[in-house]
């Protein structure tokens, strides 16, 4: 098991370097030890391209992705849990989950009395987006977009299918929005903004590698072929950066591992454990947050020891805050409420799911959210013009 390095070697520290290097407000996290504030401050424009699901170990194992590997400055950690909802929020806010409080795909918001899927912005049980329900996301999150702290113009380049979500619209802040529906269109948008040089900071996001990993496995042929397409796109962006003077940074929110069918556990098969729970699981299938009934803590712990010790590690949730898993510094006032009473951190490639009545029982091949190297470590790719 590995933990995030919030003291200079994580994606949060990268954002501290970017924010301060571009003239933004002082940051509560140290700058990144591999890419400092002073280095970033030399450039008039910075492009950060986040490729969802591109783990460090996975990239290094793919020599055909020669351009990405040739410009690999080193590795760094994601945040805990290493998953899109938590890590992309760190890219967009500059903060760790300790401060932004978004702790996984499914999060219990005590303020609303409901478990939400925060990225699509809906309750887990379904329904309309939060904004249509009259909920002010700014009051719910109480975290400001990083781009609002950077002097000058900024732009966010995101897929059109997520551009209008409450989450995307909130973290867009004052940035210009540019959407794309294909990798070619993203490449065109990145190159065009670099050539124009109007924005000080460009944030680009591409989710398809992660999607292919979930559906087919990160080690599948389809994922490998897509990585090569990303490598070609990167080579074209690099060619342009030498002409525009743009500092290009490429990284990821997390990596992935493949989970075998026999390692995908269901709460349905553990009714005595389910009886200990006060509400459905939240968090991630690799890091499940468990809210316990008041008189069931001993029963829960004993059941995990007797029946799941080979598959999961059982932690008191508040201990993980104390040990710095979610970040350093003053925690979000809602953090403790959003991680339950216990955290089941799955071993090896195990996952643990439960299902609401209306939910389709899908199975993901590629998974993340645990603390293996393959999930936690991400590349830091840097091209200086």
TrEMBL record:
It comes from the Bacteria. SUPFAM superfamilies: Alkaline phosphatase-like (SSF53649). It holds the Pfam family Phosphodiest. InterPro entries: Alkaline_phosphatase_core_sf, Phosphodiest/P_Trfase. One of its GO terms (molecular function) is hydrolase activity. Gene3D superfamilies: Alkaline Phosphatase, subunit A. This is Phosphodiesterase.
């Amino acid at each position: 098991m590995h933990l995030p390095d919030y003291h200079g070697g994580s994606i949060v520290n990268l954002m501290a370097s970017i924010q301060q290097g571009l003239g933004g407000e002082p940051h509560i996290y140290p700058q990144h030890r591999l890419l400092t504030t002073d280095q970033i401050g030399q450039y008039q424009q910075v492009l950060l391209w986040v490729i969802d699901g591109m783990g460090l170990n996975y990239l290094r194992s793919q020599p055909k992705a020669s351009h990405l590997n040739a410009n690999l400055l080193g590795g760094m950690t994601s945040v805990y849990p290493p998953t899109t909802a938590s890590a992309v929020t760190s890219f967009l806010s500059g903060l760790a989950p300790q401060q932004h409080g978004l702790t996984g795909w499914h999060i219990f918001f005590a303020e609303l009395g409901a478990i939400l899927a925060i990225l699509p912005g809906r309750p887990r049980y379904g329904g309309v987006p939060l904004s249509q329900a009259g909920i002010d996301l700014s009051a719910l999150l109480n975290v400001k977009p990083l781009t609002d702290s950077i002097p000058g113009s900024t732009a966010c380049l995101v897929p059109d299918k997520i551009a209008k979500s409450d989450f995307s619209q909130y973290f867009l802040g004052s940035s210009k929005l540019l959407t794309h529906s294909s990798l070619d269109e993203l490449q065109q948008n990145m190159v065009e903004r670099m050539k124009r040089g109007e924005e000080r900071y460009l944030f680009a996001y591409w989710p398809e590698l992660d999607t292919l990993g979930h559906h087919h496995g990160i080690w599948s042929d389809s994922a490998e072929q897509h990585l090569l397409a990303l490598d070609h796109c990167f080579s074209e962006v690099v060619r342009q950066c030498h002409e525009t003077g743009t500092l290009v940074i490429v990284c990821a929110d997390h990596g992935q591992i493949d989970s075998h069918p026999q390692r995908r556990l269901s709460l349905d098969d553990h009714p005595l454990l389910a009886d200990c729970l006060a509400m459905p699981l939240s968090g991630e299938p690799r890091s499940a947050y468990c809210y316990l009934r008041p008189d069931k803590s001993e029963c829960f712990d004993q059941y995990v020891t007797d029946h799941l010790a080979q598959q999961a590690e059982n932690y008191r949730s508040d201990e993980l805050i104390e040990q710095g898993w979610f970040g350093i510094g003053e925690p979000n006032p809602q953090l403790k409420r959003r991680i339950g009473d216990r955290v089941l951190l799955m071993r090896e490639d195990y996952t643990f799911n439960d299902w609401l009545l209306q939910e389709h029982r899908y199975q993901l091949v590629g998974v993340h959210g645990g603390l293996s190297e393959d999930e936690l470590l991400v590349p830091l790719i840097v091209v200086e013009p």
